[in-house]
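This entry is set out below.
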Amino acid sequence: MQLAANQLSNHLQRGLKSLYTLHGDEPLLQQEALDVIRAVARQQGFTERTSHTVAGAHFDWSEVLAAGGSLSLFADKQIVEIRIPSGKPGKDGSAALQQLAEISRDNDSTLTIVMLPKLDKMTKSGAWFAALESYGVTLQVEPVERAALPQWIAQRLSTQGQRVAAGEEGQRTLQFFADRVEGNLLAAHQEIQKLGLLFPADGPTGGVLRFDQVESAVMNVARYDVFKLSEAVLGGQSLRVQRMLDGLQAEGEAEVLVHYTLSEDIRALKRVKDAMGQGRPLPMALREQRVWGTKERLFERVLPRLSDAALSQLLQSAHVVDGIVKGLKQPNWPASGWQALHRLALQLCGLCAAPAARPRG
């Protein structure tokens, strides 16, 4: 049985199952889901808890199987938590998880919770994950995307009796807050709690946060992902692109990785455009180039804006920047690799933000 994170509370009100699997790459939201399940379990008499972390290929699963299979009528109800940080239980682990899943069906005295990172499609098609999903409840914890972050912050503030000012100032405050904490949800949570202490709901402002209060209190704790940079560039978000590049440089990201990500997007755009020029429909061209998900939607939006000449110029620019990040000097280009990356990214970003060209005739 699959659940979305926002369905968990309603699900638990209808009854606690014996097996839960939490998977995703957002630690804060996974921990909060785990805490909700634990709280309901404690209310129902699960007073003992054991935790096992699967580390390495030679992990001994016998203790986990013994705990998960405990059916004593006189023992306290227990929670058995299994953390698999790699997302790869191995051959022995696969067999053990399938066995635990089958045992859980008839074991009301043990609550088993399996915690995993974000899983790829192949891993989720494995027999062990299928067993966890078939016999228990799986909950995929999705990250909060940048576009949804201001609303997420507003909701978190409201739970502690706070809100931003109405109108344009409030929206500006939320956008500023989101810029400061993008990519670091745990730190965002901590900054929200800090605001609760500094400007409590029962304080002089009645819990209404002004822009200057948030600006002075919220630290810049944003963490940037080079692959999210790709989405920002294709989305034509120039200010965010500059901020992300500065952040990646400050975090010590490799220039060659940033260049590889940008140049791969440019090459993929060129290949899809060429395929369309040869008569292939856009959906077919995207599938052939293995473009899907969020990037597929972005490609569909920006390709009408990009001419063959513009893409050829972008390819030439990417070739020049490849040399710069490897230490070569190029005429009419910055000597700094990061400055050259800024120029390349903003060149593509500007084209993606431009209005789509109208077809002639």
